[in-house]
# Entry
Amino acid sequence: MLDYVKQVILVLSGKGGVGKSTVSTQLALTLKERGYKVGLLDIDLCGPSVPYILNLENQNVHQGPDGWIPVYLDKEQRLGVMSIGFLLNSRNDAVVWRGPKKTSMIKQFLEDVCWQELDFLIIDTPPGTSDEHITVMENLRQVPHCGAILVTTPQEVAIEDVRKEVTFCRKTGIRIIGIIENMSGYECPNCSECTNIFSSGGGKSLADISKIPFMGSVPIDPRVGKLAGQGLAAVKELPDSTTSRIFTEIVNQLTDPTTSD
Ligand SMILES: Nc1ncnc2c1ncn2[C@@H]1O[C@H](COP(=O)(O)OP(=O)(O)OP(=O)(O)O)[C@@H](O)[C@H]1O
Ligand code: SF4
# Structure
């Protein structure tokens, strides 16, 4: 399964609203800007926000002879996207499915999308550890070059939840690539001064304690919030921002052969 994908990255968070979809999309956009072929699979069945963030909300996926054809962000087809959101009439439609139906939809997402050859497949998951995660983990355990990035915010309560994610990954045998701390201070768009609104450094200390690589701290930047809905990469639109620098560093870590399995 997924043998045409060089690297699969699951993006996980213990809590909702920590910016997991923002991190997944900026990661995908940064990799695309660097010339990689990328797939972004949104399996947040209850709150699929990737089509909105990438400004692809009114697009439809089509069934080809070999499965679903993803929606492409660019005409060069460097970033393909698949989301349950493409199958709903509106973003506000709730998917109220029981476990078995969710499980079979996720299996279809993993098996029946014609991605073509990909350098990276990024999988945006729902928050927490639910049926969806168990299905994904069971299906991906055998896939070489599969790992998870954990996203958290600096507050203690979010860190506690990410600790549970670490245990979950270790129990299910998924390699943890690293932790990203999002909303780590507020970067003023005028003078670039960064103010710690919450406590800071929680993600880094959890990474140190758990012996997991710490990949970077992304500040709250209102300009990044505004990129959501437009499908624009911070590395291209805000090249001088801290966010751009951090995503560049994160992608360097992912593409450096000495840091991968
Ligand atoms: N670094 C940031 N700077 C500014 N705004 C941000 C940042 N990260 C996320 N946001 C904003 O916070 C909100 C929540 O982000 P996002 O949807 O990515 O979170 P999530 O963890 O995926 O949520 P969910 O639990 O619903 O899946 C969005 O409005 C997003 O634009
Ligand atoms: S951080 Fe700098 S630019 Fe932003 S409000 Fe304060 S002084 Fe003004």
